[in-house]
Amino acid sequence: MPDIPVGSQIFDLAFHPTHSTVYTGLLNGKVKAFRYDEQGHEESFVLRPSKRSCRCLDTSEDGSRLWATGKAKAIFTIDTTTGTVSETRKNAHDSPVNRIKHLMPHMLSTGDDDGVIKLWDPRKSDPIRSYTHHYDFISDFLWLDDKKHLITTSGDGTLSVIDVRGKKPEPVAQSEDQEDELLSIVAIRSGSKVVVGTQTGILSVFNRSHGWADCVDRVPGHPQSIDALCTLPSSYPSSHSTILTGSSDGLLRAVQLFPTKLLGVVADHGSFPIERIAVDLGGEGRWVGSAGHDDTLKMTDLRAVFEDEEGEEVEDSENVQIIQASDIDPQEPDGADVETQAPPEGTASVIEASDSDDDVRDSLKEKKRKSKSSKNALAGRSKKARNQIDADPSFFKGL
Prior knowledge:
Layout: E1 4-5, E2 10-15, E3 21-26, E4 31-37, E5 40-47, E6 54-59, E7 65-70, E8 75-79, E9 84-89, E10 97-104, E11 107-112, E12 117-120, E13 129-131, E14 138-144, E15 149-154, E16 159-163, E17 173-174, E18 182-188, E19 193-198, E20 203-207, E21 217-219, E22 226-231, E23 242-247, E24 251-256, E25 260-268, E26 274-279, E27 287-292, E28 296-301, H1 302-305, E29 320-324, E30 348-352, H2 357-366
Parallel strand pairs: 29-30
Antiparallel strand pairs: 1-28, 2-3, 3-4, 4-5, 6-7, 7-8, 8-9, 10-11, 11-12, 12-13, 14-15, 15-16, 16-17, 18-19, 19-20, 20-21, 22-23, 23-24, 24-25, 25-30, 26-27, 27-28
């Protein structure tokens, strides 16, 4: 599908849960909707609820309503059938709103630039509760439906867990300071593990059964910040441990965890950072949308990218170099670098990690190895001497 030009920088995107329609929130305050298929796209509606930027969007469970908010500090309810604003909550926050998420049929969450989180009932004008335990911007939300927990990440370096059924205006858990801005979050392994993207390019893995105080694994490799994360549709065999990462270096990557392996590059935004990624039809569709600072919405066909996974996972063991987890120096700050010899041209590096977090930590203590010729498998498109990954989508055909 050709790129969809929108005429302004995209801050957020949201897909209709059942129809082939995508909504974009723009820097100029407009919300644009597009219908799409294999042949292309057409504009559905355009409206401008506010002259200030529209930073975040989310839809109701049936797609009949679209909530938009941003720098105007107000929450706008849009009727997606008519393309008009049906309700406006003015001064919903004292600071610009950075994230919004629909949790349950009668509950929304919003987070602003000052770290304030509010829960809303769309039928009422006032918030249900407010939380002020974060002191920097709210970067992302994750909803765990089994426990009715809202997981929040913040620029203050902590992750917090809110039980929306509770009455106290404080979280049930909050992590230690991770000494890094937490920018994005996604759940894997049927929600048993949570992956967080950070400013320094490290994926931090939290295990729910081990609590939320600290991460149990750190996966380095991205050359720049990981601003967006997304899971694959459940129809793909490796979806339980494979995520899509949007980095500020402009590459949308497919990364498999347990063991950690870069599968390849899904989309390339050039030199523009990727701010948001999402898969259509409630995360179970065919198309992944990615948006950066290039004023276009890029739609990538996942079927074409992961064509070998339609049947079963295929791996060419001759073209993969294994790096034992014990080869990572535990003394490096934040698990910074995996030091190894350069893999052969056209191959991908693999960090072979045990599924058991305790086994991984034990193996990290056993051995150190440092080498001057370190190569970063996830660095995709950087300097020529460090480029180990072919960004061409045909790379996947050889996997």
